[in-house]
């Protein structure tokens, strides 16, 4: 095994990893990232974007076609799954139906041929962790969905892995249990201090649970960042659309901190784009406020309104026929003309189809352009 100097705290890294099956289009098209020890990471993206493939490569169930995967600074491309300190919790939990709870959790320890009393102690510890003490002798088919999932987690953590991979572990649960398990998992990760890599296509779940999110699309990472970064500053239309609801309109960057859309110029907080560059503007529905016509920055007609408990979801159209979605605690009158107000901070400017790599390059180049222009 060859070693590299990894930044302190890095446990896993991918360097330009490509995964291709036969002659088909690659399912991972050159993916690079770093995972730090002890944090909760989420791979988020639509079905088929390559999330499970990344987990399989980390677990050792598949090998990369090109590129390198490092665990603790060692290349592990060809290291067998059972020699990696990584465990997986699968979507269907993959529990053994003919074994009881205790034996399911003890399974890996028995394979390692540990002593009986050591096994009993470790299984008890793991069951205590997932709050299932007293269920040792229960058959798997006598457990609820949430309990089965906790057995699957106990079975994974009993091996004391450095990394726990969780592939859509909550997707089989109903909404209430799902929310409850989100809290439990998050709390469990913090208590254990193990690195969790969690796969989901549910953006709310990703925002609620993660320290860091990788948003994936078509075999690439579109953006990575904290839940706040990703929500407040989506890098392109795909991310803005995938994470939460957005109003996206075409615009032109006039100069730093000044953007034009809907035929008007607005103050904004974005800089670093070229003058007169075509851009896309994102404003989140909750950042739009209903105002009197003369106080609004936009003039719209209210088309429909739904009460959503916490807020009204109001659909409006501007003069050019563009729809604006507003989440407001105030009611509006359907059919009336109203103003919409927003702060300069509510405007987020995006370049067309820009990836994170392109974004970084642009920011680097910006410094050069600025000094050149002066
Ligand atoms: N063994 C395989 N042979 C050929 N193609 C495969 C194989 N495994 C996965 N793929 C393809 O790779 C692509 C990515 O699959 P992957 O399971 O990683 O996606 P995903 O993002 O996890 O999707 P989902 O949310 O639906 O599980 C899919 O188009 C899939 O059909």
Task: Give me the secondary-structure topology.
Blueprint: E1 10-19, E2 28-36, E3 40-44, H1 51-59, E4 66-71, E5 74-75, E6 86-89, H2 101-111, H3 116-129, H4 145-157, E7 163-167, H5 175-192, E8 195-200, H6 203-209, E9 212-217, E10 220-225, H7 227-232, H8 237-242, E11 247-255, E12 258-261, E13 264-267, E14 277-283, E15 289-291, E16 298-307, E17 312-318, E18 323-328, E19 337-341, E20 348-350, H9 356-373
Parallel strand pairs: 3-8, 3-9, 6-7, 7-8
Antiparallel strand pairs: 1-2, 1-4, 4-5, 9-10, 11-12, 11-14, 12-13, 14-20, 15-19, 16-17, 16-19, 17-18
Helix pairs in contact: 2-3, 2-4, 3-4
Bound molecules: adenosine-5'-triphosphate.
Mind explaining what this structure looks like?
Residues 370-374 have low confidence and may be disordered. The N and C termini lie far apart (51 Å). A hairpin with a 2-residue loop joins β9 (212-217) and β10 (220-225). The strands form four sheets. This protein has a six-stranded mixed sheet with strand order 6-7-8-3-9-10, with helices on both faces. The protein has two domains: 10-231, P-loop containing nucleotide triphosphate hydrolases (Rossmann fold, 3-Layer(aba) Sandwich), CATH 3.40.50; 246-371, OB fold (Dihydrolipoamide Acetyltransferase, E2P) (Beta Barrel), CATH 2.40.50. It contains nine helices and 20 strands. α2 crosses α3 (116-129) and α3 packs across α4. The protein has 374 residues and is α+β, with helices and mostly antiparallel strands. Adenosine-5'-triphosphate (ATP) is lined by residues 21, 27, 45, 47-53, 201.
């Amino acid at each position: 095994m060859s070693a590299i100097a990894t930044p302190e705290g890095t446990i896993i890294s991918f360097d330009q990893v490509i995964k291709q099956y036969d002659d088909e289009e690659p399912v991972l098209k050159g993916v690079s990232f770093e995972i730090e020890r002890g944090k909760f990471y989420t791979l988020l993206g639509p079905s088929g974007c390559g999330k499970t493939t990344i987990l399989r490569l980390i677990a050792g169930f598949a090998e990369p076609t090109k590129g390198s995967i490092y665990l603790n600074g060692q290349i592990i491309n060809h290291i067998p799954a059972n020699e990696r300190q990584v465990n997986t919790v699968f979507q269907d939990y993959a529990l053994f139906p003919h074994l009881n709870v205790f034996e399911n959790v003890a399974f890996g320890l028995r394979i390692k041929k540990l002593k009986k009393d050591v096994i009993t102690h470790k299984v008890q510890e793991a069951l205590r962790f997932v709050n299932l003490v007293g269920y040792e002798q229960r058959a798997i088919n006598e457990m609820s969905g949430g309990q089965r999932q906790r057995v699957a987690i106990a079975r994974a953590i009993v091996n004391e892995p450095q990394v726990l991979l969780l592939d859509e572990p909550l997707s089989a649960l109903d909404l209430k249990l799902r929310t409850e398990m989100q809290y439990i998992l998050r709390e469990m990760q913090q208590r254990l201090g193990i690195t969790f890599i969690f796969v989901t296509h549910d953006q709310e779940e990703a925002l609620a649970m993660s320290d860091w999110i990788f948003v994936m699309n078509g075999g690439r990472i579109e953006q990575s960042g904290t839940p706040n970064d990703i929500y407040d500053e989506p890098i392109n239309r795909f991310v803005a659309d995938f994470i939460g609801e957005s109003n996206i309109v075409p615009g032109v960057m006039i100069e730093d901190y000044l953007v034009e859309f809907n035929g008007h110029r607005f103050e904004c907080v974005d800089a670093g784009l070229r003058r007169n560059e075509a851009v896309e503007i994102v404003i989140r529905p909750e950042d739009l406020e209903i105002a009197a016509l003369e106080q609004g920055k936009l003039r719209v007609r209210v088309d429909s309104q739904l009460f959503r408990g916490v807020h009204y979801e109001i659909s409006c159209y501007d003069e050019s026929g563009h729809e604006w979605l507003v989440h407001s605690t105030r009611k509006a009158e359907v059919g009336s003309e109203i103003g919409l107000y927003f702060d300069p901070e509510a405007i987020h400017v995006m370049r067309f189809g820009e990836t994170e790599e392109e974004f970084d390059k642009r920011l680097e180049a910006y410094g050069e352009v600025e000094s050149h222009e002066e």
